[in-house]
Amino acid sequence: MSPSSVMVGRLDAAICLNINLPTHFPFPRQRPLAPHLAQQQQQQPSSSKLNALSTNNREIDLIFTDVDGTLLNSKQELTSKVELAVSAAAAAGVPLVVATGKALGPWTDRILPRLDTRMPQIFIQGLLVRDYEEGIIYQRLLEEEILQEAIDFAEEHNLSLTAYCGDRIVCKTRDEHTDRLIFYGEPTPEGIGPLHSQIGVLPIMKVIFMAPEERITAIRPAAERTFSGRAALTAAIPGMLEVLPSGASKGAGVEWLLERLGIDPERCMGIGDGENDVEMLRLCGLGVAVGNAGAAARAAADVMVASNDEDGVAEAIGEFVLKPRGLSL
Q1: Rounded distance, CA 20 to CA 264, Å?
Q2: What SS3 state is found at 63?
Q3: Are 274 and 69 in contact (CB under 8 A)?
Q4: What distance in Å separates the CA atoms of residue 320 and residue 143, rounded to the nearest whole number?
Q5: 3, 175, 195, 316: which has the fewest C-beta neighbours closer than 10 Å?
Q6: Buried b or exposed e, range 289-324, using 16+ CB within 10 angstroms
Q7: Mean pLDDT of successive 10-residue stretches along the chain, which has 329 residues
Q8: Half-sphere exposure in the Cβ direction for 117 (13 Å, CA)
Q9: The pLDDT value given to residue 49
């Protein structure tokens, strides 16, 4: 089955950026990503980035941020300092878009209204985009053949498996691994029995293999061999390995939205901490890794800021959005 996609209407939210919307909206695609500095560990961006940002008075126009491990602290809290920084950026005309692997769930009602934005938001590793007014404007499903093989792989390797369906997460049976998702404000996993019977019935966008981290590390090479060239694998949280449609990533979802809005990626800042943020960090003109980021995100980023428990997102906004405009928190 070919990937299913849904696209609807235009975005009123674009008005706040004073941009002209394109007349057609292509699907996310894989493209060569702009080269970035590898193994960047310093606390200030490279001089080339600083020069590029200052040339012709170029400024950041749009912020993309990961949620878990980045926007939220380790207690799943949006701190007052980060909330203030996001609001100050919005007041300066620079809105924020969340780009997350999470589903639509309880966390959205708790966090999104506090972000002072009417922009579209990106969920499920770029596989679902929801507009503030229009609802879902893009979605892509996992191919049935890959879904079948993922279910079989989980059974063969004795892994828990969860399947993401927009605002639902389903599994064969709930256990200690599936219920880890509840801490992150995800929809409570639903034990619905064997998932084979749901292929072609539920709109499944991605699946996650779940087990202790050492077990996930051990089976990842086998998963890579099984799905090589036919599906994308990524990780966001220890003990979880995600299977996405081929070519899918958070960065691809960001790219789709930018093409729809007609915004140059070079005028965007991306902030993240995980392997699943790498494509987004490379795509954006300024990629920022928070201090708790893993090795993959650090290598993809241009600059590092404080950790998520030290309000790293607020630091990034203050330094690269507000300061160039003569503003401060």
Answers
A1: 12
A2: strand
A3: yes
A4: 40
A5: 175
A6: bbbbbbebbbbbbbbbbbbbbebbbbbbbbbbbbeb
A7: 40 36 32 33 45 58 98 98 98 97 96 93 98 95 98 98 97 98 98 96 98 98 98 98 98 98 97 98 98 98 98 98 95
A8: 30
A9: 54
How would DSSP label each residue in 274-292? SGGGHHHHHHSSEEEE-TT
- CA-CA distance, 18 to 245, in Å (whole number)? 33
3-state DSSP assignment of residue 64: strand
DSSP structure class, residue 103: P
Q: Strand 121-123's sheet: what is its strand order?
A: 121-123, 128-131, 135-139
* Measured CA angle at 285 (ends 283, 287), to 5 deg: 75
Is there a contact between 247 and 217 (Cβ–Cβ < 8 Å)? no
DSSP, res 201: T
| Cα(59)–Cα(304) distance, integer angstroms | 19
**Distance (Å, rounded) from C-alpha 125 to C-alpha 251?**
8
What pLDDT, on a 0 to 100 scale, did the predictor assign at position 155? 98
Q: 210 pairs with which residues across the strands?
A: 160, 240
Give the Cα-Cα-Cα angle 273, 179, 202 (nearest 5 degrees). 90
Compute the distance between CA of residue 82 and CA of residue 115 in angstroms, rounded to an integer. 9
Q: What pLDDT does 42 receive?
A: 38
Which two three-digit tokens encode residue 132?
């503030």
Task: Give the pair of three-digit tokens for residue 99.
Answer: 């780009």
Q: How many CB atoms lie within 10 A of CB 46?
A: 14
Compute the distance between CA of residue 315 and CA of residue 150 in angstroms, rounded to an integer.
40
Report yes or no: 181 and 117 within 8 Å, Cβ to Cβ. Answer: no
**What DSSP string runs through 131-185?**
ETTTEEEEEBPPPHHHHHHHHHHHHHTT-EEEEE-SS-EEESS--TTGGGGGGGT
Biggest CA pair distance of the chain: 59
**Residues with Cβ < 8 Å from 80, sequence gap 6 or more?**
none
pLDDT at 23: 28
